[in-house]
Amino acid sequence: MLEIRGLRGGYGQVEVLRGISMSIGAGEIVAVLGSNGAGKSTLNNTLCGIVPAFSGQVRFDGHDVTRSRYTDIVAAGLIQVPEGRRIFPNLTVLENLALGSYLRGRAKREQNIERVFAIFPRLGERVAQRAGTLSGGEQQMLAIGRGLMGEPRLLILDEPSLGLSPLLVEEVFDLIRRLNDEGLTILLVEQNVGQSLAIAGRAFVMENGAIVFTGTPGELLANSDLKRAYLGI
User: Fold this and answer.
1) Residues 217, 218, 223, CA angle at the centre, nearest 5°?
2) Dist. CA 101–CA 99, nearest whole Å
3) Domain boundary among 152, 170, 201
4) Among the three residues 105, 124, 152, which one is the final residue of a domain in this structure?
5) Distance between CA 34 and CA 60 in Å, rounded?
6) pTM above 0.90?
């Protein structure tokens, strides 16, 4: 579904991504792991057209989207739930969700809102509440719900467990597993190594803008040098 070949990109004259190559098949959960500053969020934003690629190629469902506008990428079904949630704090829960279907999923907006409320009952209880007054966990639920409103074919989750309590982290990863069981392809970008490897089929480890490991979670966990050098475990 997603093929990345020799991708280089960054900000201005500063190159952050240094020849990234990876692929994601339909129905997979693929984890991208690495420490702060490894280039994970830059990779996400380059895939989504927010940060321009310097060179290389990104193909989504067989189509070259390397230099496509971010609006066209979203319309094709490649949707990101960004790090830090990026909700609209002065808008209500319902208004935030509706904006998630601005480019894609508009025809089934009401049906998808009901689906989000079924997944996150707490959002249904706070439908008219301003998003900025929600707890951190509820804001993360809203960010994921807003991403689902666009009917993604591939969903990028950037640090979905960041800042959450251990109980909420468990809930988030259980949700990711359930969404994947329903057929959603997921690119999971996380620092929570243990939880990510428990649900992912394959893992990539990034360091200094490059991929330094590709393999199964079992292969990664069996490599003590790699775990110690790049993951701190």
Assistant:
1) 100
2) 5
3) 152
4) 152
5) 24
6) yes
pLDDT over threshold 70, residue 231? no
* Residue located via tokens 């420490």: 35
- Cβ within 8 Å of residue 7, ≥6 positions away: 17, 19, 20, 21, 43, 46, 53, 55, 56, 57, 58
144 is written with which tokens? Answer: 């994921």
Pair 158, 226 in one domain = yes
- Spatial CA neighbour of 66 closest among 12, 16, 15, 20: 20
- What is the mean predicted confidence (pLDDT) over 117-146? 94
What proportion of the chain, given as a percentage, has pLDDT over 90?
79
**How is the chain classified by DSSP, letter by letter?**
-EEEEEEEEEETTEEEEEEEEEEE-TT-EEEEE--TTSSHHHHHHHHTTSS-EEEEEEEETTEE-TT--HHHHHHHTEEEE-TT----TTSBHHHHHHHTTSSSSGGGHHHHHHHHHHH-HHHHHTTTSBGGGS-HHHHHHHHHHHHHHT--SEEEEESTTTT--HHHHHHHHHHHHHHHHTT-EEEEEES-HHHHHHH-SEEEEEETTEEEEEE-HHHHHT-HHHIIIII--
Alpha-carbon dihedral angle through residues 108, 138, 176, 158, given to the nearest 10 degrees: 100
Give me the CATH number covering residue 63: 3.40.50.300
